[in-house]
Amino acid sequence: MVIRPLAAVAAFVATMGGAHAQSTVDVVYATPNDVATLEPTQVQGFSDHTSTLAIFGALTFNFDGKTGEVGYKPFLAEAIDPVDPNIWRIKLREGMSFHNGAPLNAEAVKFSFDRIRQADFPSGRYMKSAPIESVEIVDDLTVDVHTTEPIAIFPARLLRADGYVVEPGHYADAPPWERISETAFDPVGAGPFRFVSHEPDNRLILEVNDAFKDPRGYPAPNFDRLILRVIPEPSTLVAELLQGTVDIAPIPSEMVRVFEEAPNLRVVTSPSTTRLSFMINQAAHPALSDRRVRQAINHAIDVEALRQTLTGGQGVRIASLVNPPNANPSLRPYNHDPDRSRALLRDAGHADGFALTIDWSAAPACGALATAVVPYLEAVGIAVEAVRERDWATEYLPGQVAGTLGGLHGHGHAGVEMTAETDLWPIHPEREANSTNWTGPAADRFVRLYRKLQQTTDPDRQRDLGHALQAITHDEAISVPFWQMPRHVAVSDRVAHFRPYPGGHNEDFWSIRMSDGASASGTGARS
Where do runs of H (alpha helix) occur along 120-160? Predict the structure, then answer.
């Protein structure tokens, strides 16, 4: 096991305490993938994201795990406000510090932003290319971020891991950035949990940072350590949950019934920001460039029947790619109307139908859906030549960029930032990985309105522009929106309170509360 300096200190203190050392209470959270790095500018998957958030904290956060409230509020920052369209002011909370005792101050914010923006810094994430001109220290707790153009959703961008603040002394690396790998598993943040140790392909151990002052006023959790266990095999996960050696674990829909009927376990289900939709590649067949054909595809599929069959009714229908609370409430999903579908195909000159291919990747739910829509399409004369699972890295992603995926294709879209700007970006005609090959007057209108959305910081104007953009995509039938995928989490009775984060990247671990009967004699009694 790889033991880092903090763990060594803890072990030393424990031995000095002798018989007086107290047992620890752990929360064990299962994840299928190991943490690849704890360097916030390099993170990729869920395990990286949720772990770095716990360690570093964020200047802003968009979820309250106690109440379930969703919406951006300052977190490590006291306020984040636009001074003018090209200046954002960040004011930090007083008395915050990093895990090594160094103060969380304006110097640290400037260092963190300047660090990733250096020309040869090894990161391809957003803050690397953000239109930031300079970061000016106003006072010890305040910085002004000057931009070359407006960044309307700047507070939301700060929730991405590359927007986290790092401690300048610990991360004082320089080209060729050799310390990037050295600090990957020796992190020093200002968040609610401290790093203890990492055992590759097994577990990451974090401990509650007793010095952390939760900005929401919530007291420290009634547990000592958070352990992220790596359990990739579903059968092993089932066994460990049933045995009580895991406390919290996200699970797929097909496992829900198993755990609902199990003793000492419950399943918490909530809508997630991951939307299941199939994009329509207008270059895959000449027919697909006609809006009427795309509308016909939407009318052909009985989405409500599929929602009941594939999600047990727990998926939430959507009319566009934008998540609540930013979804346009006036839009309604296309209804299942095969006769209308056939009429639209006939009007578009395709009364005899045509053929297409369906590609999917990443989420098994996409595969099940891809197969399930075939009979509906064929019932209106659209033949499906093949349903193909595409390898994510070697086939699907390159196909997105090249615009060569099937006429229908999908992988699920996770709304990391919960903004209309982010949710609509996958179908922006100028996005490199936009796989729809969408062109024409409506696409041009979309681009113009989207640019306005990117430049306004007025919430009402952002809402109106977001709604207008969704209306365009709905009328143009750029995709087939299905539902928000439900997020299921199995939770042990040892845990009195846990609300899952609605997105696919984070959790609010600080809000977890253990039951009165939970003690070090349960699953937490580990060393």
Answer: 126-129, 154-157
* Each residue's pLDDT tens digit, 142-156: 999 999 999 999 998
Residue 377 phi/psi, 5-degree rounding, is -65, -45
Q: How many CA atoms lie within 13 A of 178 on its CB side?
A: 0
Ramachandran class of 392: left when φ > 0, alpha when ψ lies in -120 to 50, beta otherwise? alpha
> What is the per-residue pLDDT across 77-114, written as a single tens digit (0 to 9) for each?
999 999 999 999 999 999 999 999 999 999 999 999 99
Distance (Å, rounded) from C-alpha 473 to C-alpha 469? 7
Eight-state DSSP code of residue 82: E
Angle between helices 291-300 and 338-347 (to 10 degrees): 160
Q: Is the pLDDT confidence value at 19 over 60?
A: no
- Sign of the CA dihedral with 345 first, then 479, 68, and 243 last: positive
Chain centroid to Cα 129, Å, comes to 20
Say if residues 469 and 319 touch (Cβ distance below 8 Å).
no
Query: Which among 415, 503, 500 has a CA at the least distance from the CA of 466?
Result: 415
| pLDDT value for 415 | 66
Question: Using an 8 Å Cβ cutoff, are 126 and 157 in contact?
Answer: yes
- Residues 191, 209: contact at Cβ < 8 Å? yes
What are the Cα distances from residue 260, in Å, to 119, 224, 251, 303, 494?
52, 28, 12, 26, 16
Q: Residue 459 burial by CB count (10 A; 0-12/13-18/19+): exposed, middle or buried? A: exposed
- Selection from 152, 483, 465 nearest residue 324 by Cα: 483
User: Residue 463: exposed, middle, or buried by beta-carbon count in 10 A (0-12, 13-18, 19+)?
Assistant: middle
pLDDT tens sequence across 400-439: 999 999 999 998 777 667 889 989 988 999 888 889 999 9
In Å, what is the CA distance from 472 to each residue of 406, 424, 438, 446, 467? 23, 11, 12, 7, 9
Half-sphere exposure (Cβ direction) of 390: Cα atoms closer than 13 Å? 24
Alpha carbon distance 240, 246 (integer Å): 6
Pairwise CA distance, residues 382 & 300, whole Å: 9
What proportion of the chain, given as a percentage, has pLDDT over 90?
72
DSSP class of 266: E
- 56-78 exposure pattern, b = at least 16 Cβ within 10 A, e = fewer: bbbbbbbbbbbeeebebebbbbb
pLDDT at residue 451 in the model: 93
> Span 260-286, mean pLDDT?
92
Query: End-to-end distance of the chain based on CA atoms, in angstroms?
Result: 12
Hey, is 188 helix, strand or coil? Answer: coil
- 8 Å CB contact between 2 and 185: yes
Answer for the pair 294, 280: CB distance below 8 angstroms, yes or no: yes
Q: Which of 280, 258, 275, 276 is nearest to 267 (CA)?
A: 258
Question: In the numeric block, which tokens belong to residue 377?
Answer: 């399409």
